[in-house]
Amino acid sequence: MIPGLGQAAPTATFSAPTITATVAVHELRPESEWRFEVAIGQKIEVRIMSGTAELFGTELALNHVYTFRGTKSSIYTWHGCRIEVTGSCEEYTAEETPMLQYANTHFALEKLRDEAHQRQGDGPRVMVVGPNNSGKTSLVKLLTAYAIRTGRQPMVINTDPREGLLSIPGTLTATPFASIIDVEQGWGSSPTSTSSPVPVKLPICYYYGLASPEDNTKLVKPILTRLALASTSRLAEDQIIKETGMIIDTPGIISQGKGGYDLISHIVAEFSINTILVLGSERLHIEMQKRFSAHRTSTGESITLVKLDKSGGCVDRDDTFMQQTQEAAIKEYFFGDSRSTLSPHTQQMGFEDVTIYKIREANALSFLPGGMEEEATGLYEKVEPNPGMLHCMLAVMYATTSDSQDTVRDASVMGFVYVSEVDDKKRRFKVLAPMNTRITDRPMIWGSWPEASMSVIG
Ligand SMILES: Nc1ncnc2c1ncn2[C@@H]1O[C@H](COP(=O)(O)OP(=O)(O)OP(=O)(O)O)[C@@H](O)[C@H]1O
Q: Which residues form a coiled coil (predicted)?
């Protein structure tokens, strides 16, 4: 193993020994929210001393010590509570929240699920749209948590490549949620960790490999179609998931302009969306009304549009924060978290042992009439390992090296490797893999998202 690996909090050793952790007790009134931000590399511990409290819809247990690292989040109480906080963070308490609206949305969805149960049909297929940092992911989490608390099993779908859901950024996933969300981990542990107290959830995972869906619409659209097919057939296998339905998170960028609206239409069509929740934008709500008021799903249903307020707690996350979150997700994938340590394997291979496809940024090619160049050259370019790949992630696909590019694109992801060394002279390279599985007979995809990251082995 490479020395220095698996250290979760590299700043810990530098803290001055005389500083003792601060302890504060907050008394929250009913229907208020304690909002907090913990810097990356820092942690706080929170204990609910009395009353009831929840984090994005997931109930917090009394007297359990929860640890939060590098996060922006909030604890809400319907009936009032007292919380003890150890450690320092930026924090304040808010009395005004859109929680009643959000809870009512859950109850409206519950009505649809009960109806679905009675006719043994499909539950609601909900899409959440809104600009960047309008609270889409937090709302999806809350609706997921409330559904689980009601005994449901929602299929949660992430179409935002910027952030992974139980997966690496750059992937698009569908995950059936049967057990509670792990509040300390965001969504929960990644499937590579094994000893999490919360049961592991296994996402159906596809790889897009670019930061924005608008970077290559010709690649993202068929992947979304594939994701819709896979999740619809998973739904059909299981009555509880089927009647609970889907909750879909979307990238903020597609709510911000014309090209994006086409992607919204694509998701609406492919996933047969019948409920759209619009967060925090009057203009977007009007645009959605224009586009979808006369729309009918394949089974003739109309679309219900609901406008919801943005929470005052939503915070912008700057590039540094996003980058650090991304690196933390990658590190966790290979090395586990503070609760379970993983031991990744290093594999050494010759340049000629592997098949690697680099994603073309297709939208940059569209200067040729009718996209001719792209048709002639394909979505991916076959490349040899090269120094440009150093510190990048490669997606190992469930396909064979002789498969066509379209088959590789449509394949689900088997796992990821991290390129830790490239020796141009000896024509050999090294990767870090979560397991010692043979990967040379699988095609791999090299994208630009997640970005190359030194700190994974630093
Ligand atoms: N009520 C709240 N209190 C404190 N923090 C919050 C609250 N709601 C959301 N946040 C935080 O604000 C940030 C943005 O929220 P969120 O990720 O839900 O937005 P988003 O619309 O999904 O963003 P993006 O478009 O970038 O994916 C997150 O760090 C989230 O944890």
A: none
The CATH code that applies to domain 23-94 is: 2.60.120.1030
How far, in Å, CA of 226 to CA of 259, rounded?
Answer: 20
Q: Rounded distance, CA 13 to CA 10, Å?
A: 7
What ipTM did this prediction achieve? 0.99
Q: What is the DSSP letter of 17?
A: T
What pLDDT digit, counting tens, does each position of 46-102 carry? 999 999 999 999 999 999 999 999 899 999 999 999 999 999 999 999 999 999 999
252 lines ligand 1 (CB under 6 A): yes
Region at 194 (left for phi over 0; alpha for psi -120 to 50; beta for the rest): alpha
Question: Whose CA is closest to atom 10 on ligand 1?
Answer: 314
- For the domain made up of 342-365+378-457, the CATH class stated in words is mainly beta
Q: Which tokens in the block code for residue 68?
A: 């939060």
- Of 151, 138, 139, 217, give the one whose Cα is nearest residue 180: 151
- What's at 298, amino acid-wise? S
Distance 57 CA to ligand 1 centre (A): 14
pTM (2 d.p.): 0.91
**CA 313 to centroid of ligand 1, rounded, Å:** 8
- Does residue 130 line the site of ligand 1, with CB under 6 A? yes
Topology match between the domains 23-94 and 342-365+378-457? no
Atom of ligand 1 nearest to the CA of 315: 12
Q: Is 255 in the pocket of ligand 1 (CB under 6 A)?
A: no
Residue-range domain boundaries for the chain: 23-94, 98-190+198-308, 342-365+378-457
Which residue's alpha carbon is at the smallest distance from atom 9 of ligand 1? 314
Q: How many other CB atoms sit within 10 Å of the CB of residue 350?
A: 12
Pick the residue whose CA is nearest to atom 23 on ligand 1: 133
Helix spans in 18-98 (H): none
Annotated binding site: 33, 72, 133-138
CA 65 to ligand 1 center in whole angstroms: 23
